[in-house]
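To close the chapter, one final illustration. This time we ask the reader to focus less on the individual chains and more on the assembly as a whole: which components sit near each other, and how the overall shape emerges from the parts.
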Amino acid sequence: MADSSIDKIIDLSKDLRWQIGDDFHDNLAEGIYADASEIATSSVRIDNQNKQFRLDRKIDKIVTSKTWGFPIMFLILGVILWLTIEGANYPSAMLADLLLGNLHPFLKGLAASIGMPWWLDGFLIDGVYLAVAWVIAVMLPPMAIFFPMFTLLEDFGYLPRVAFNMDELFRKSGAHGKQALTMSMGFGCNAAGVVATRIIDSPRERLIAIITNNFSLCNGRWPTQILIATIFIGAVVPASFSGIASLSAVISIAVLGIFFMFLVSWSLSKTVLKGEVSTFNLELPPYRPPRFWKTIYTSLIDRTLIVLWRAILFAAPAGAVIWLISNIYIGNESIAAWTINSLDGFGFLLGLNGVILLAYIVAIPANEIVIPTILMLTVLVTGISGGEGAGVMFELDSINATSDILKAGGWTLLTAINLMLFSLLHNPCSTTIYTIYKETKSLKWTVVASILPVIMGFVVTFLVAQVWRIFVN
Amino acid sequence: MSDKANSACETCSHFNADGLKKLGVNTDSFDFVVALAGNPNTGKSTVFNALTGLRQHTGNWPGKTVVRAEGAFEYNSQKYKLVDLPGTYSLLSTSQDEEVARNFILFGKPDVTVIVVDASRLERNLNLVLQILEITDKAVLCLNLMDEAKRNNIEIDERTLARDLGIPVVPTSARFNEGIPDLIQTISEVASGKIICKPHRIKNVPVNIQKAVDTLSEEIENQYPNLSNSRWIAFRLLEGDNKIIKALKAGEFV
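The assembled structure is written out below.
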């Protein structure tokens, strides 16, 4: 095709555009609407007495109302969390009993009977196998409860209402209202939340949503929050209130995360990511009763198993690393003990300790293994009895035993509170970091998104520690 | 169980449970490409799952499908590749998801475009339908969520609608697999050319614009006689759409 003929078409279009003026877009849009209306009128018959629309609207009036919108949101979050915490207890204990209590000794016995050298047996069974077993025992039950419930809520049509409620807050903090949706996804998994930001068109607002997604407490961090809250927060109130107290503590941390998300979104949009807030149409879809069993099935297949598989992939090498650093000696100290000692000073400043900091370095691939790593390392440095030996990750059968070990390791209420804060405010896991890089294709923003929360974690825990030591001690 | 019933049904083109094979993500070789377009929240992904046997998660919120999902099915020994496009309200602006959808229908030249609409919000959905019908000749309207429409006492005269739009209309409730066999049958008939569409073209435009569009599309047709969507390209050129001008220069329409 000759170029001249194309130029001719383009020139002609320029001339014509000049003639018809700038109303073209509006005229065309109006024309389409007029056609649509004509066609619809001749084929659609609506009986105006329809009741479903009224029910939808009635529900919407309550769940998106100024007074009830937020309390209902927190109530739903609370109920889901409570069901997850309570419901996951028993299956978790059963899995732990099976995988750690029975299968682990069996494997050890098997290894001994075929004469496996101690280092290979330790590396594979005490390192890799135990890390994987722990992640399955701790993560599978809560995920298998949390994800289906979240998916049911999603299929019912509640998520757009959350976005509707929070739109004003997001607009004020210079972010996109749809960030409410990606934030909610982040409560399940931050990597999934980062991918979901594709629904935000403006690159500026999308970047804000990506950077702040880490402030949604993800599934890998819920167990840490719940365990620490149960041991330390629940213990400071009378026994009958301990359940409520620990649940409120966990919800407060989640709400604090949302607060930080707004704060960081606001600061970014006022400094490095300045710009107008884009408007968008959010359609509130009709409520649809979810197809219960189908939803449960797909959410188990699509979400739970995929996320679990990812966790296993990352936990296996992490388990190996923990075993190695605890069993390789430099002089007469293991690498782990040496690192913990050098991190202890900095840890004290933050109201934490060297064990926690090292655990967070080891657990970069998967947040789920923070608690077992902490327990194992605490046993290692305090030299108290418990667990299975150097570099062996384990779960203690009772919360009391866990609490004893942590207290022997010098833990106080401050350590617990700051661990909960640091669990909220630290770098995203390596999967999320990789996903951020894939989505932004920018090394700079990936680094910002990874480093910013850690710095905030240091600052917040440092301040809390200083204030605590002045006023409480 | 009953060979007799089977043999009687085999000859009937509407009995297609036997002819349908859901191929999942296996999109290696195919005879036809089918695009799934539509507004957000009309159940496109549910239709996609019903056709391919895949279990792509479907959430009840707008914008769920952010990437182009692909799947396949086989019907009467012909393979169909199915592409689930992001849901959009229009093709006239330039947001990322609209461009993905538009470019696929325009340059991907699907053999059939299935436009999924929410039966209880037909008028609003027609905005996109009419735009797509300017781009492609081979389309099927999937009137989805019929169960909800019925519950809301909305009745739709499918025949009138099909006549007005000039394309086949298939009512479905994809969540309950209702109407899916009909949809597959219709897709295959449009793909094979058994059904010829005469799509509706936008009428209610002021005379001066109509004239300009006619002049321009005539010129485009002179240069590209095989183009079926010259009118739509004329629309875009009159709007000054740089991407279309670029595509034209690069010869992507030939």
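Strands of chain A lie at 44-46, 329-330, 333-334. The radius of gyration of chain A is 27 Å. With these observations in hand, you are ready for the problems at the end of the chapter.
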